[in-house]
Amino acid sequence: MATAELASLVSRLETVVKKLESNTGGSGDAQQQQVTAKFIEAYDEFVTEYVDPYLAASAVLGAGDMADQQAKLFKEICGEMKKFLLIVSKYGPPANDSVIMALAKNMSTKMGAMNDLKSKLSRKSDQKNHMLAACEGVSVFGWIGYPKAPKKFVKESKESVKFYTNKVLTETKTGDKATEHKNWVNAFVNVFDGLHDYIHEYHTTGPSWNASGSPATETSTADAAPAAVPPPPAGGPPPPPPPPAPSALAATPAAAPAPSAMAQVLNDLNKGTAITSGLKKVTNDMKTHKNPDLRKHHAPVPYKASNSGYKPVTKAKPAAAKKPPVLRLEGKKWVVENQENAADLKIENVEMFHTVYVYRCNNSVLTINEKVNSIVLDSCKKVGLVFTSVVSGVEVINCQSVKVQCQGQMPTVSIDKTDGCIVYLSNECLNCEIVTAKSSEMNISVPREDGDFDEFPIVEQFRTIWNPDKKTFITTGTESI
After folding, report:
1. 3-state SS string over 423-467?
2. Are 199 and 193 in contact (CB under 8 A)?
3. Which of 57, 142, 359, 389 is most buried (most C-beta within 10 Å)?
4. Which one-letter DSSP state was computed for residue 40?
């Protein structure tokens, strides 16, 4: 009877479990696939709603023209992006960034091909700024490499594109195809708005990798489905091993513990007066007050502090590993880092909205032959900077023994926490504003008619006095520098 009741109970439990599974909508894998399909489907909608109108607007300007060719390449890059997102939907996050670069290799190749079209561009072409805008905008697909702020990267790319699209609107305002060019600009800029919204919805912190998939590798493809991570075994953790048999515990008896020092003292105290029976009798010849000769031969030894005290062991800090030198364009910022003894560094093919950031370089010379937005020298030593012009200014911070030469225009130069800085001005930037703080050994060189320079030091010491008339402090530089 007990067996029949147990079988009935098991059957009822199985029925309840099946009902619960049907109500929850299946396993977690099915839910993950449903979410995955949703962001792939949303990407297809983004391409249809935003990229296809840009493609159509480019064809209207002239089928086969540069703008049309670039739009078709842009659409192909969108296709490569979808393949990458399919891999994201099936695999878990990769071990390092090099895997992402390998998976996006085809996309990078097509992006390079799109930029190569600039070499075929004629300066007299009416689609010059269209092409420059597209070449600048194609970098937006690099959002997959910015997991912390992909939306911000897209927004910055849009601002860079608008630098050229505004030129398109200005140059074609009164032309025959003014409306067509305006439609092209609106369609292209809308692509970035649509991508921004898509990332905000599905990839806020970078690509949404499949948490239940195995880690992506360089050989992962969008076609083959990876093996899912095996679930933990049912029934909880295995039981602990059984305790050893009593016979094993009793096989080797433990030795009796030795009495402690305190126990020995208590045993001696328990002897009472018998404890003195073991003492040796002291005779008169052993007493110093009875035998003066003992004081002569056994003078007290003066106390001497031991110098063998505890000294903490200090481990030598390991030498910091040298980081590899860097010179590359990231978005609209040129990054120059960790350059050592490089006397011929050059930045070419720059745009006016680009910025340059030079960090931790030593004994090197950097040349910039075109106008940029701004330049920053940070934590550099014995570095020379030669540039044509800047839009906003140059900033030197935390540097030692650096030289800055402007060959064109420079509105401002800021020197902060720097020891040793020489700034060579051109005739075009003699009216620039120089701002200094917490710095020393600063000199400004001004060109003469014979081509040489006159050097003027910048004041480092100041005198502050109270002005009773103005009821404020007046600060002036001292002549002793």
Report:
1. EECCHHHCCCEEEEECCEEEEEEEECCCCCEEEEECCCCEEEEEE
2. no
3. 57
4. H
Using the structure block, give the residue that is written with the tokens 């790319």.
157
- Among residues 202, 223, 217, the alpha carbon closest in space to that of 103 is found at 217
**Mean local confidence (pLDDT), 225-247:** 49
pLDDT tens per residue, range 112-124: 888 777 767 666 6
What value does the mean pLDDT take over residues 376-384?
A: 95
Residues 6+ apart with CB under 8 A from 151: 196, 199, 200, 204
pLDDT for 432 beyond 70: yes
Residues facing residue 329 across a β-bridge: 334
- State the number of CA atoms in the 13 A half-sphere of 466 facing the CB: 2
Superfamily of domain 28-203: Adenylate cyclase-associated CAP, N-terminal domain (1.25.40.330)
Every domain of the chain and the residues it spans: 28-203, 326-464
Query: Do 65 and 127 contact (CB within 8 A), yes or no?
Result: yes
Would you state the structure tokens that stand for residue 433, as one six-digit string? 């504003």
For residues 212 and 31, is the Cβ–Cβ distance under 8 A?
no
As a CATH number, domain 326-464 is: 2.160.20.70
In whole numbers, what is the pLDDT of the chain averaged over residues? 79
- Which of 113, 119, 159 minimizes the C-alpha distance to 140? 159
Give whole-number Cα distances, 396 to 27, 149, 325, 378, in Å.
Answer: 59, 28, 20, 6
What is the distance between the alpha carbons of residues 195 and 335, in angstroms, rounded to a whole number?
A: 26
Burial classification of residue 343, based on how many CB atoms lie within 10 Å of its CB (0-12 exposed, 13-18 middle, 19 or more buried): exposed
Q: What are 388-405's pLDDT values in tens digits?
A: 999 888 999 999 999 999
CA nearest to 88, candidates 195, 212, 200, 194 = 212
Q: What pLDDT sits at residue 221?
A: 77
Q: What are phi and psi of 365, to 5 degrees?
A: -130, 130
CB 347 within 8 A of CB 374: no
Question: Residue 447 has what pLDDT?
Answer: 94
* Helix, strand, coil share (%) of the chain residues, nearest 5: 40, 20, 35
Does 211 or 226 have the greater pLDDT score?
211
Contact call for residues 368 and 386 (beta carbons, < 8 A): yes
**Length of the chain, please?**
481
d(CA 227, CA 124): 56
